[in-house]
Amino acid sequence: MLFQVYGDNSFYQLIGWVMVFAGLIITNEIQRRSKAGGCFFFFVLPAALTAYFIAIYIGAANGASWALKNPTYVHMTSWFHYAKLYAATAGCIGFMMLKYKKGIGKTEWFKVFPFVIVAINIVIAVCSDFESAIRGSIALANTGTRWWLSSEGVWLYGGWWNVANGVAGIINIFCMTGWWGIYQSKKKDDMLWPDMTWAYILAYDIWNFEYTYLNLPTHSWYCGFALLLAPTVAAMFWNKGGWIQNRANTLATWCMFAQVFPMFQDYSRFSVIPSLYADGFMKSNIHPTAADPRAGGVVAVASILINLAIFAYIVKRAKAQGINPYKKEVFKGTRDFEEAMARAA
After folding, report:
1. Does residue 5 belong to any structural domain of this protein?
2. How many other CB atoms sit within 10 Å of the CB of residue 283?
3. Which Pfam families match (predicted)?
4. Which of 142, 162, 215, 265 is positioned for an S-S bond with 133, CB 3.0–4.6 A?
């Protein structure tokens, strides 16, 4: 079992998952179908939140009790959360420019932006994975256990699984093909990347799920399961070719919510922890006394094997067609690709 979803809170845990999944689906539809909706979520709301974050840290620096006790200040202090929030938001803005062909979104060279921003987001996560592996090794040498306490007071269990998944993330970057194959949909409601078919989505989802499972354990029920499934479902059923736009929209939305309301996933009836915490979750100066890393290890192996398999598949298709898979679209002729292209302007 991956998660501890049972007991008195299981009903709330399941309802919480449904609320997050449905909320992300709905907000994504507002963001992609309405220019006003996109501008509100990716310009107005981030600007307001930035002012809010600055106010909190200024208040904390001056010793203000309201700031020092603020949930964002107490529970969301890691560099990763802020980097992810603003990187994802930058991606959404860039995708809107491409979708509506505004400013540099009209240029040919800017079509490579989706690859660049996704690669940056992956590298951020890979660095975090390697950091956990290193800190786990240091903890093992110093204390005899792999538990290490993050800046947010969450005990993580760093090991070879982090290294394996970090390598899978690097491979995943090279699984992105057809960098310049970016299109505007006929209805102008989507930025399409047709070469990002089910093959890449599978490789990315398994890698990213494992990343969250290992490094954001108290959030992974939501950001590693509901958050990944929402854009994938949309891309599979009604938004062919729009997966990367769905992913950026839902990721930015979730990051904003989680940054302001961390207690929802951390300490409430809706909180869910992985099976790693064999004796339950502990947030204190004493690390958990038992760990069950088997699930994380199995998923890490699956992550690197699936990414290697997809990369090999890409190389095989590219050789058969005699093309560079990054300059040209390697999945042309497949069902997913053709269905996405049918929506392109």
Report:
1. no
2. 14
3. DUF5692
4. 162
The answer to whether residue 1 is domain-embedded is no
Distance CA 58, CA 302 (A): 44
SS3 192: strand
**118: β partners:** none
DSSP string, 128-147: HHHHHHHHHHHHHHHHSS-E
- The total of other beta-carbon atoms located within 10 Å of residue 273's CB is 15
User: CA-CA distances (angstroms) from residue 3 to 112, 213, 274?
Assistant: 38, 10, 4
Contact 151, 128 (CB under 8 A): no
Give the residue from 245, 209, 240 showing the smallest Cα distance to 227. 209
pLDDT per residue, tens digit, the chain (345 aa), is 899 998 888 999 999 999 999 999 999 999 999 999 999 999 999 999 999 999 999 999 999 999 899 989 888 877 778 888 998 999 999 999 999 999 999 999 999 999 999 999 899 899 999 999 999 999 999 999 999 998 878 899 999 999 999 999 999 999 999 999 999 999 989 999 999 999 999 999 999 999 999 999 989 999 999 999 999 999 999 999 999 999 999 999 999 999 999 889 888 899 999 999 888 765 566 778 888 999 999 999 999 999 999 999 999 999 999 999 999 999 999 999 999 999 998
Q: For the chain, give the longest Cα–Cα distance.
A: 65
Residue 219: inside a domain, yes or no?
Answer: yes
The total number of residues written for the chain in this structure: 345
Query: What count of other Cβ atoms lies within 10 Å of the Cβ of residue 225?
Result: 21
Q: Token pair 């689906």 is at which residue?
A: 25
Say if residues 306 and 149 touch (Cβ distance below 8 Å): no
For residue 19, give its domain range. 10-341
282 φψ region: left (φ > 0), alpha (ψ -120 to 50), beta (else):
beta
Residue with tokens 């203000």, as numbered in its chain: 64
User: What is the Cα–Cα distance from 170 to 168, expressed in whole angstroms?
Assistant: 5
Residue 206 inside a domain? The answer is yes
